[in-house]
Amino acid sequence: MVIKRSYEEINEKLKKGTAVVLTAEEVSKMAGDMTPSEIAKKVDVVTTATFGPMCSSGAFINFGHPSPSLRMEEVTLNGVPAYGGIAAVDAYIGATSEHPQNPRYGGGHIIEELVLGKEITLRARGKGTDCYPRKEIETVITKDAVNEIFLFNPRNACQNYAVATNTAKAVKYTYMGVLLPELANATYSTSGELSPLLNDPDLRTIGVGTRIFLCGAPGFVVWPGTQFNTSKLRNDKGIPKSNAATLAVLGDLKKMDPRFIKGAVFERYGVTLFVGIGVPIPILDEDLAARCAVRNREIETTVYDYGDPAHPMLGSANYADLQSGTIEVRGRKVKTAPLSSIKKAREIAEELRSWLKKGEFALTAPVELFPTGTTVKGLEIKGGAK
Amino acid sequence: MKKRFVFNFALDAADEPITYVLIKEYDLKLNILKAAISPEKGGELLVELDGDDKKLAQGLDYLRGRGVGVDAVDKKMLFRREECIHCGACVATCFAGALTIGAPDWELRFDAEKCVACEMCLRSCPLKLFDLRFG
Questions:
Q1: Is B89 in contact with A340 (Cβ distance < 8 A)?
Q2: What is the CATH number of domain B3-75?
Q3: In the predicted model, is pLDDT for residue A118 greater than 90?
Q4: Are B92 and A177 within 8 A, CB to CB?
Q5: What CATH number is given for B78-132 in this structure?
Q6: Can you give the pTM of this predicted structure?
Q7: Phi and psi (nearest 5°) for B112?
Q8: How far is residue B123's CA from residue B135's CA, in Å, rounded to a whole number?
Q9: Which of A82, A88, A123, A137 could cysteine-pair with A75, CB 3.0–4.6 Å?
Q10: What distance lies between CA A50 and its chain's CA centroid?
Q11: CB contact burial B72-98 (16+ within 10 A = b; e otherwise)
Q12: What pLDDT was estimated at residue B46?
């Protein structure tokens, strides 16, 4: 019998509390003794999740107008520069923005503190206009005091990611953590078989308008993320062998849970933000069941040398090996460690399951599917612009 | 059994060759991993001691009798465990094997007995949850 399910059927079951919702890890385990068709018959929704450092994140804030008002042109939050080049009292605080005197503190920390309900000092200046005569302001804000504050992350939940190692003779301090000299360690940053875009590699169910778990609140996929690349080499399971698709996501920061969003700093790299994302995948048919049944050993990624500025490829590894604690690179055993938290990703997958089971979270079909055949450009250095 | 300690001593106590006594009188293998002496804080030594359990205890008693503060390293290593997000970034840099993470629960574990106080985790933890009370 060919299994076909619609979003409407699944949502009806979720409302009645009769839907079978499993985590991606549970489904991967089932694949040991069940066929995709048997899994498709049994399972309605699979929850996937990731909790990792995602630098391309930030929040839009509308502070409200003071009286008289000002056109905020330079904006800082606890001394961390926010982008004020947008209307009068709107700003964007990016996760990687850093305090000029204390670069270990930055946007990621501000965002976490806002979620925690802490008070943040806002300082802003403008030139003064006829309609906005005030020239500066210093006040204290909280997430509840501002009009709107929403996380809008241009590039999150990367489909697969590099393994970073270092063949150089010096320690390299990177966004992939502290890489010790001469292949002494390697880091990776994907939750493997639990990771959202590795469970729907062709993005059949994830597109514009997909409702997701974003840092403990319902959020949405709003666009393909930046550096969205569908042209990467794929393995025999159809999974890209290096970083490929990405998601732009949005959600109400006022409703977020501090357990699933954390400011962070990578030594001598800078400030970033750990973001928790959960994506429900409806098992519409056998193909999606087969995709969600993928196991760590069937997902490969590429090992790159961050000790060389060109980041040359050194080989490949699968997630079963990476999660075992050692991989082999150039014939040497190299210690591995993750940067994204599998423990937290599991918590997110469970939390999302409980939302679904309570009928509080309806699945949405993409309003528009993502493009295919995309590639990523580098930046050419051209002279002549005078 | 090998164990790591931090010794604290006032500068006038530095007149006595305490490490010599530990080796000679108590037959302990002594490895100094780190030393700091300053007029304000006095002296601190991070040492690894290896020897008979009974003699080790006697040696430590000798030190205490000389006014030397003796703390096992795990008392010196501060880890704000409740704030840990179990990412694993510290594990990449912990070659003493004190910090570990993996299946089945992917929970970060810190075994202070294995810690050599190299301080790499102070740098590699993205939440800066480690601190070493030393020097």
A1: no
A2: 3.30.70.260
A3: yes
A4: yes
A5: 3.30.70.20
A6: 0.92
A7: -60, -30
A8: 17
A9: A82
A10: 7
A11: ebbebbebeeeebbbbbbbbbbbeeeb
A12: 87
